[in-house]
Amino acid sequence: MTDSSADGLMPFQAMEILKRAKVLEASGRSICHLELGEPGAPPAPRVIEAVRQALPNAQGYTNAKGLDGLRDGLVGYYQDQHGVRVDADAIICTMGSSAGFILAFHAAFRPGARIAITRPGYPAYVNTLLGLGFGVVEIPVSMGNDWQLTGADIAAAHAREPFEGLLFASPANPTGAAVDRAGLADIVATCARLGVTLISDEIYHGLDYRGPSISALELTKDAIVINSFSKYYCMTGWRIGWMVLPEHLVRRAEILQQNLFISAPTLSQIAATVALGERDYAEEQKAGYATSRLRLDAGLRELGFDVGGPSDGAFYAYVGISRFSNDAMAFCSRMLEEAGVAMTPGVDFDRVDGAGFVRLSYAGSAATIDLALERMSGLLR
Ligand SMILES: Cc1ncc(COP(=O)(O)O)c(C=O)c1O
């Protein structure tokens, strides 16, 4: 396949940058990895220990929706964190949120249906939707508006080109933008008024720096909510997440899960059940991100990047490079080859305006952030 296929599938440039960074590392170069949204820390020690103990007896499939213990734990999570009662039967444990998207799209829509997403946004949204035969409507959000999506933006986009679904993340990737309760209520109400099914990607929940994460489930029973253990619980490679579905979609999603994936990985479900009780550990990691967030923001600003302000949540800075370049791919390539700093070009997230932006992840160590800023400074000054 060439870099852009007829149906619009594009490579994930963060992975391409990682591939090149690995080659450089193999030749002895030191690289600061700011290109991937992966926590640097492992899962909580109790998670690892539980898996060690479960190993001899965890070889089989689980039931399609997932272990009762995990789904009960998630019911407790919604009660404790969001004050919401969720039925364990409405929860399906998935192979990361990535598998949750596939189930959600096929449960709620038929191929050909149009789903709206923000631009910039997580690249897999466009690629998964196009790859599965759905249509994509992009709703632009801008740095001038703190990268926020509003009900008015949704209504205006819908008037231009109607869509059946809206896939929305708060906090978002790559911008880190997060809506408050009023902002989410506006989005939920607008979707209800337009007859649009809301898919709320809550993967960065727990990583809000300005206030508590608000779940769509606090405001409506009609949304499909998707979440994951990848980010807050530091478990990207365990491929474990979950979704909560409105009642009328549960059975169809379960049947799809039975046929597409059978069940989420058993050991990872056991790990996830324990992880839910390890929020103190997750909060320690978050405290590290919170420090890096401010350091990176100040450092990038001083170097001359266009910085809107520290991100509301997640662990990304999405910043403009107008002072240095109008070609983010070339800029990232130069940063990698000459400064040993890996970052992701904005074109991954925004095929229209992304050439003017780069994304840097501060999910790694504070020392990596400091070294990366020092190296960038050497090259840019
Ligand atoms: C917004 C968003 N959603 C979903 C995912 C996929 O996560 P996973 O499949 O590991 O749960 C990512 C990964 O970076 C993301 O940034």
Give an account of the 3D structure.
The chain has 381 residues and is an alpha/beta fold. The chain folds into 2 domains: 13-42 and 280-380, Aspartate Aminotransferase, domain 1 (Alpha-Beta Complex); 45-277, Aspartate Aminotransferase, domain 2 (3-Layer(aba) Sandwich), CATH 3.40.640. 42% of the residues lie in helices and 13% in strands. It has 12 helices and 12 strands. Strands 2-8-7-6-5-3-4 form a 7-stranded mixed sheet, sandwiched between helices. Strands 9-12-11 form a 3-stranded antiparallel sheet. The protein is globular and about 60 Å long. The two termini are 39 Å apart. The relative contact order is 0.18. The protein binds pyridoxal-5'-phosphate (PLP). Pyridoxal-5'-phosphate binds next to α4.
